[in-house]
Structures are given as structure tokens and as C-alpha cells.
Design brief:
Length: about 140
């Protein structure tokens, strides 16, 4: 069995992630200390909320260097879920420009700046209309 760390930095739906990992027959533990990452083979970075606030919490709780060293030096797998995936990027435009973990070269664009006319953040279901039948 693989051991999976679920990072608790204050902005994640931790129990949902823990239950999903358990259902896949993996051992997991929610960790709130960066040093605990040394005891795990794989890492999950969940997240719900603001990019800027999440990066501030990761910095305040000393997660950034531990996450980077585990991924870049120790070559551990890191899986970002929702906001956690966005945090892996270089930057985000959400609520002003913020630096991310820079593990994936890229910039998260704010949909409002791209002409999105829907309420942001968008939570729930929407209707779609198919303009052209496409075969994939």
C-alpha cells in the first residue's frame, strides 16, 4: 500500500479527500506539519477558496519549501485538487497578481478579465448549448 499525505494548511475539504483515498485502498493521513511529508511517498494538496489567501497560509505555516523540496529534490508525486492544482502554477490573477509554487510554468487567468459574464466564483450547474456536432 502507498502512503499518501493530505496537506492541511487551512483551506481544503480534507475529509472528502481522505475518504476518496481510503476508497481507493491507499493509506492516507491528514498532516498539519511540513516535516511530516518526509514520512509519505505521495502528497495531495487540496484547496477551496482564494489563491492569494492560500499562498499566504502556505507561507505562514512554512509549507512552501517543504513542498518544493519533496517534489523537486526527493521526486515525490504531488497531486493538486481544485485550488491546490492552481497553486502549483507560477502566478494567479485572482484578486490581484500573486505568486504560486511555480512547480508548473503558467499563469492562472481571472475569468472576469477574459469576458466571462457569469458570477465568479461559479458554483452549481449550468446549461450548455451545442453550436456544432463534433465527433471525438
Amino acid at each position: 500500500m502507498k502512503n499518501v499525505a493530505i496537506i492541511d494548511y487551512g483551506m481544503g475539504n480534507l475529509r472528502s479527500v481522505e475518504n476518496a483515498i481510503k476508497r481507493l485502498n491507499y493509506n492516507s493521513k491528514i498532516v498539519d506539519s511540513p516535516k511530516d511529508l518526509d514520512n509519505f511517498e505521495k502528497i495531495i494538496l487540496p484547496g477551496v477558496g482564494s489563491f492569494k489567501k492560500a499562498m499566504k497560509l502556505l507561507e505562514e505555516k512554512n509549507w512552501i519549501n517543504y513542498i518544493k523540496s519533496n517534489v523537486l529534490e526527493k521526486k515525490k508525486h504531488l497531486f493538486g485538487i481544485c485550488l491546490g492544482m492552481q497553486l502549483l502554477a507560477t502566478q494567479s490573477e485572482e484578486f490581484g497578481l500573486s505568486n504560486g509554487l511555480n512547480l508548473i510554468d503558467g499563469k492562472i487567468k481571472f475569468l472576469g478579465n477574459l469576458g466571462c459574464k457569469y458570477k465568479i466564483p461559479q458554483i452549481g450547474w449550468n446549461f450548455i448549448s451545442i453550436k456544432k456536432n463534433m465527433n471525438f
